[in-house]
Amino acid sequence: MQSNSRLAVAIHILTLLAFREGEQITSEYIASSVMTNPVVIRRILGMLRKAGLVTSHKGNTGGWQLAKPIDQISLLDAHAAVKPGPAIALPLKEPNARCCIGKGIRCALIETFDDVEQVMMDRLSGITIADILNRVEGVSLSQPTD
Amino acid sequence: MQSNSRLAVAIHILTLLAFREGEQITSEYIASSVMTNPVVIRRILGMLRKAGLVTSHKGNTGGWQLAKPIDQISLLDAHAAVKPGPAIALPLKEPNARCCIGKGIRCALIETFDDVEQVMMDRLSGITIADILNRVEGVSLSQPTD
DNA sequence: TCGTAATGTAACAACAGAAGTTACATTTGA
DNA sequence: TCAAATGTAACTTCTGTTGTTACATTACGA
Questions:
Q1: Which residues contact B102 (CB under 8 A, 6 or more apart)?
Q2: Is the Cβ–Cβ distance between B27 and B64 less than 8 Å?
Q3: Å from A25 (CA) to D2 (C1')?
Q4: Is there a contact between B107 and A139 if contact means CB atoms under 8 Å apart?
Q5: Which residues of chain B make contact with A13, given a CB cutoff of 8 A?
Q6: Most buried among A42, A51, A133, B92, by the most CB within 10 A?
């Protein structure tokens, strides 16, 4: 299948909250920006809250806001919060242990894929929501360079 | 979903062919090592052949073998051959262009994710089937270090 | 030249995870 | 006490992956 897009949505949400910092933002409003259903957004907001990245207020005037300064939320934080499976998946069934290659390949693949995933994580950890917001505003406002 | 495991299977196949270099290996034999159906294996072998990594012979005594020396096949080659989608997926629907963040976020995410994916690819390009075979044999034979 | 055992591929079923949707209990400020 | 929000469960829909069956084609060797 297409693998899940929760990280992309999570970053979209965090960037929106960053843009509107100080305000209470509703899941409905966010959903209209992401173009999806508010429940989908609340599901992801729930994960972000569990990870300590956002806070919510119930009730009539409730909504969501960031729990930290925007330059202290990295994409790695968002990634960890929404737990998308491994970047490179293993087969469900274990290989045949009676085959010389089958016996050792899974372990070798795990080591290798973990290693590759680690460099991805390192890169994600160096990018913050502040960076993304900058980039988005740069595009949206298409500010002149002189 | 769990995203597809074709890269893992492809590496398993290539490593097996490397181990048995010089011989004609059948899809049935490979399937019994991977613990799956021969057709699944042939599908992936087909992709590997299209990428020039393996060759096949039809007919009674047919089978498969590597098309290149094992230290000249990188995991990046295998990755390109089996085309697993992007490591980090975008949502199917475009965000709302009438929202300031929605308007720019997709572009920013694409740039960012491409960047992250690139470091993964760089790492994959530095690992060859020869490396994997070494690692597997190291585990399987659990060779003493003295 | 004929049988055997392989590739090559189409078609379909089974399965699983993601995303969308509806419904509703709960909360809280005005 | 009403209105509007969160929080969550349950279910549906969709889509891609994997597994399976079936069969045409190929080519070696007896």
A1: A12, A33, A34, A35, B95, B96
A2: yes
A3: 22
A4: yes
A5: none
A6: A133
Distance separating the N- and C-terminal Cα atoms of chain B: 45
The interface residues of chain A toward chain B in range 96-115, judged by CB-CB distance below 8 A, are 96, 99-105, 107-109, 111-113, 115
pLDDT tens per residue across all 146 residues of chain B: 558 999 999 999 999 999 999 999 999 999 999 999 999 999 999 999 999 999 999 999 999 999 999 999 999 999 999 988 899 999 989 999 999 999 999 999 999 999 999 999 999 999 999 999 999 988 666 555 44
Round and report the angstrom distance from CA (A121) to C1' (C24): 40
B39 close to A (CB below 8 A): no
Q: Kindly state whether B34 is in contact with chain A, defined as any CB-CB distance less than 8 angstroms.
A: yes
Q: Is the pTM of this model over 0.85?
A: yes
Q: Is A65 left (phi over 0), alpha (psi -120 to 50) or beta?
A: beta
